[in-house]
Amino acid sequence: MSMVHGDALSLLLFRLHSGRLLGINLLKVQEIIPCPPLTKLPSRHPHVRGVTTLRGSALTVIDLGKAIGEQGVPGSNDGCLIVTELSRSRQGLHVQSVERIVQCSTRDVRPPPAGSGSKAFITGVTQIDGKIVQILDIEKVLHELAPAIIEELDEQLLSDRQRALLKGRRVLVVDDSHVALQQTTITLRKLQLDCQMVRSAAAALELLQAQYAAGQPIEVLVSDIEMPEMDGYELVRTLRKKPDIGQVYVLLHTSLDSTMNTEKAKAVGANDVLTKFSIVDLSKALVRAFESLQ
C-alpha cells in the first residue's frame, strides 16, 4: 500500500437520521458495527442512548444527531455505531447509516462559515463529487457531553527547579478545535508559561514571524496534527525550511494514539509527539522541551 502524502485526508461519510451528510476523519474511527441492544443508564446524559459491551469493555453510545442539535434516532436500535477512539477513551456514535470512505486533500478543506457560532460542531467543509460535506468536530461533541475536568496540577508533579525552568517562557499553541485549545492553554497558564494561541497553521506561521521580528521569538510550538488547509506535518515541513524561525522546538499534539504518528512526526522534523489529553504528560513534555533548549 503506498503511503498517502501528509496532506491527504480519508473521510468516512455517514448520514444522521435527519438525512444530513457528514464526514469524520477516518483515523479517528476504530470500527463500524450494527447497533447492538443497549442498556439504559438511569442517570445518563440526555444525548447518551445507553451502554453496550464491546469485546469485554463497556462502550458508551451517543446519539450523535441529538448531540449536535438535530432530531435524534427514534427509540429503535436501527442504524449503526461508529466506534471512535481518541483522547484516551472509546465511544460509539449512533448514526443512521455509513456510506463510504473518500479521499480528499486537507488543502481542499475550508474552515466552517464564520457565522456558524460556537455551538456548531463542524471543524471544516469540503466538496466530494459536487456535494458539500461537513466534517465533524468529534472532540467538541465529546467535550460538551463530559466537559474535561481539568485535573488540579499536583504540586508534587514538577519540582521547584522544573517550575522555575518553565516560568515566563514563550509558547505558541495551534489547534483548530476550540476545546483542545482551551484545555491546553489552561494547563500552560497554570505552569506560568507565557502562552499565545491560534486556530490555524497559517496563523501560527504569521505569529512566529512577527514575534521573531519583534525580538521575542517563540521558543516552543505545541501544534495539533489533524487541521484543515495545512496539517501539523505540513506546518513542521514548512517551518524547517525557514532560516529565521525554522529552529523552533515543535511538540506535535494529537488525539490519535499511534506509533505511525510518532515515526511520521520525527520524519518531518518534529522534536516530540504526544497523545491528547493528559496534564501530566503535557507538563513533562514541556519540561523536556525547555531542558533541551538550555
From TrEMBL:
<dbReference type="Pfam" id="PF00072">
    <property type="entry name" value="Response_reg"/>
</dbReference>
<dbReference type="InterPro" id="IPR024181">
    <property type="entry name" value="Chemotax_regulator_CheV"/>
</dbReference>
<protein>
    <submittedName>
        <fullName>Two-component system, chemotaxis family, response regulator CheV</fullName>
    </submittedName>
</protein>
<dbReference type="InterPro" id="IPR011006">
    <property type="entry name" value="CheY-like_superfamily"/>
</dbReference>
<dbReference type="InterPro" id="IPR036061">
    <property type="entry name" value="CheW-like_dom_sf"/>
</dbReference>
<dbReference type="Pfam" id="PF01584">
    <property type="entry name" value="CheW"/>
</dbReference>
<dbReference type="GO" id="GO:0006935">
    <property type="term" value="P:chemotaxis"/>
</dbReference>
<feature type="domain" description="CheW-like">
    <location>
        <begin position="8"/>
        <end position="147"/>
    </location>
</feature>
<feature type="modified residue" description="4-aspartylphosphate">
    <location>
        <position position="224"/>
    </location>
</feature>
<dbReference type="InterPro" id="IPR002545">
    <property type="entry name" value="CheW-lke_dom"/>
</dbReference>
<keyword id="KW-0597">Phosphoprotein</keyword>
<dbReference type="InterPro" id="IPR001789">
    <property type="entry name" value="Sig_transdc_resp-reg_receiver"/>
</dbReference>
<dbReference type="GO" id="GO:0000160">
    <property type="term" value="P:phosphorelay signal transduction system"/>
</dbReference>
<feature type="domain" description="Response regulatory">
    <location>
        <begin position="170"/>
        <end position="291"/>
    </location>
</feature>
